[in-house]
Amino acid sequence: MPTTDAEAHDVATLRQLNDRFIAALTGSDVGWFERHLAPDFLNSNPDGTLSDRAAFLHRVAQRPSVTRLAAEDVRIRLFGQTAIVHARTVYTKAEGQPGHGRYTDVWARGGESWLCVAADVTRC
Known about the structure:
Number of strands: 6
Number of domains: 1
Distance between the termini: 30 Å
Helix content: 25-40%
Order of helices and strands: HHEEHEEEE
CATH class: Alpha Beta
Mean pLDDT: 95
Radius of gyration: 14 Å
Strand order of the largest sheet: 2-1-6-5-4-3
CATH architecture: Roll
Largest sheet: 6 strands, mixed
Shape: globular
Strand content: over 45%
Number of helices: 3
CATH topology: Nuclear Transport Factor 2, Chain: A
């Protein structure tokens, strides 16, 4: 739990960024990610591969492989200028079956803004 007004503000900001991250994924909004990913961003994919920023942006530009993606049980932890967001996902697979997974995103503050520096995604 945030202990100061500044921490509460950071948690609220990160919660909003997390919501927009999910919306940008479902909407293939590459522009949002171009503004909110660090230059050296890395993504651990559900298949165990690692994508750099350019590969992640290319993947986002494609039609999403799942629909009705939503985040649940979002937990945000602050560590000074760094934050970790953990959450559970629910979605519909391409074949129509329900799916779920988890993700962990790492954010770093640069000045007054936050940039996502890493993400790790699992799917079941």
